[in-house]
């Protein structure tokens, strides 16, 4: 120990002997240093992430002093010392959608296991808002930024977003997407098209012949992938294009409700199954059917995609394509430290057939020949 350090430790008066009430006076790092009888620089290194080079006995004394005094380290000081805060910044498209709640739960579990705290911001499915949030988050120096949600067709804003995230990564930050592949960052992606195709084949095999597809705007890539995948499955099962109709609406529960009302008002015209490209839309459609005096699962079948929690709790339970959303969230945190600049992790899907799609009354008819 230097002469200066010896002089500091002999001159320092412990805070507990100074009759200062921590509740009536803000405890500072200087107070902790005095309490632990170390220099201010040593206390700073011990508590703000630069403990390398601090002797173990001094480290223990500083941490014990901080605990006695109720000292809370300054997050900005820690970020400066470490280059980042101990946070994962999660940006989601819609806070009300259970899809994102399940993803957030998986991210939170994985973050906890790594000593990180999750903060969340909502982009409201706006590429411009997402970009603004990322710009703001960079100033808070999170360790990881996770963007969860469908990519939306907006070339100019996407280019700005890539530039912003690239600059953030150049300063040591980590970026992960839970979305479609395409951006130059690690990505956890759901096999949307294949899941929808598999569902269509299963429904055709159950005897359904005429379909309505309720989907969001095609600029939302998740909606487009699922709509097109379902159409591919229908064609492969011998269902002609004229035997299904498409209704575009908002990518929300109320959008599903409005689309089903539109179908009812124009006349269902023999439609025996409605496929909504996410479960919240499917649940909205089921409510619209009931409001019109129709019983989902009896008068008309309904299927969705995602297998959110309410899918199995509603009556009838919803046939859907299950996505392990919690696992996707946890995988995103695990993918963040990858040395590969843009690894891609595909999350498989599974069709769960439930009471909302019993075998169709037409199932005794000969099934059409699959197309080649």
Q: Topology of this protein?
A:
Blueprint: H1 3-11, H2 29-36, H3 40-47, H4 56-69, H5 75-82, E1 87-92, H6 98-113, E2 117-122, H7 127-138, E3 144-148, H8 155-170, E4 174-178, E5 187-190, H9 192-205, E6 211-215, H10 221-236, E7 244-248, H11 253-266, E8 273-276, H12 279-291, E9 301-303, H13 310-313, E10 320-322, H14 325-335, E11 344-347, E12 350-352
Parallel strand pairs: 1-2, 1-3, 3-4, 4-5, 5-11, 6-7, 6-8, 8-9
Antiparallel strand pairs: 10-12
Helix pairs in contact: 2-3, 2-4, 3-4, 6-14, 7-8, 9-10, 11-12
Walk me through the structure.
The chain is of the alpha/beta class and 372 residues long. It has 3 domains: 78 residues, lambda repressor-like DNA-binding domains (434 Repressor (Amino-terminal Domain)), CATH 1.10.260; 108 residues, Response regulator (Rossmann fold), CATH 3.40.50.2300; 146 residues, Rossmann fold. The chain has 14 helices and 12 strands. A 6-stranded parallel β-sheet has the order 2-1-3-4-5-11, with helices on both faces. A 4-stranded parallel β-sheet has the order 7-6-8-9, sandwiched between helices. It has a two-stranded antiparallel sheet with strand order 10-12. Helix 2 crosses helix 3, helix 3 packs across helix 4 and helix 11 packs across helix 12. The longest helix has 16 residues. It is elongated and about 85 Å long. 41% of the residues are buried. The N terminus and C terminus are likely disordered.
């Amino acid at each position: 120990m230097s002469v200066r350090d010896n002089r500091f430790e002999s001159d320092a008066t412990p805070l507990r002997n100074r009759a200062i009430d921590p509740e009536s006076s803000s405890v500072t790092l200087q107070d902790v240093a005095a309490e632990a009888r170390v220099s201010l620089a040593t206390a700073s290194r011990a508590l703000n992430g630069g403990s390398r080079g601090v002797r173990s006995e001094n480290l223990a004394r500083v941490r014990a002093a901080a605990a006695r005094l109720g000292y809370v380290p300054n997050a900005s000081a820690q970020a400066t010392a470490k280059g980042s805060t101990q946070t994962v910044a999660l940006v989601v498209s819609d806070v009300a959608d259970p899809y994102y709640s399940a993803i957030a739960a998986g991210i939170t579990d994985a973050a906890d296991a790594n000593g990180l705290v999750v903060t969340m911001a909502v982009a409201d499915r706006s590429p411009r808002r997402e970009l603004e949030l990322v710009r703001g988050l960079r100033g808070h120096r999170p360790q990881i930024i996770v963007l969860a949600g469908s990519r939306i067709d907006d070339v100019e804003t996407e280019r700005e977003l890539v530039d912003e995230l690239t600059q953030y990564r150049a300063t040591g930050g980590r970026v992960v997407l839970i979305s479609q592949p395409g951006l130059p960052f690690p990505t956890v992606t759901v096999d949307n098209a294949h899941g929808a195709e598999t569902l269509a084949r299963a429904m055709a095999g159950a005897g359904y012949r005429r379909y309505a597809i309720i989907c969001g705007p095609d600029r939302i890539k998740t909606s487009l992938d699922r709509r097109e995948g379902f159409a591919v499955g229908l064609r492969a099962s011998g269902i002609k294009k004229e035997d299904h109709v498409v209704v575009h609406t908002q990518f929300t529960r109320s959008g599903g409700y409005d689309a089903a009302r539109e179908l009812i008002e124009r006349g269902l015209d023999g439609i025996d199954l409605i496929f909504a490209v996410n479960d919240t839309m499917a649940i909205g459609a089921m409510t619209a059917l009931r409001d019109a005096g129709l019983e989902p699962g009896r008068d008309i079948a309904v299927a969705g995609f995602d297998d959110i929690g309410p899918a199995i709790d509603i009556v009838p339970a919803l046939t859907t394509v299950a996505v392990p959303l919690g696992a996707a969230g946890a995988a995103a945190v695990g993918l963040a430290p990858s040395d590969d600049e843009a690894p891609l992790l595909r999350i498989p899907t599974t069709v769960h057939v439930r009471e909302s799609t019993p075998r169709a009354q037409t199932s005794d008819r000969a099934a059409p020949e699959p197309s080649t």
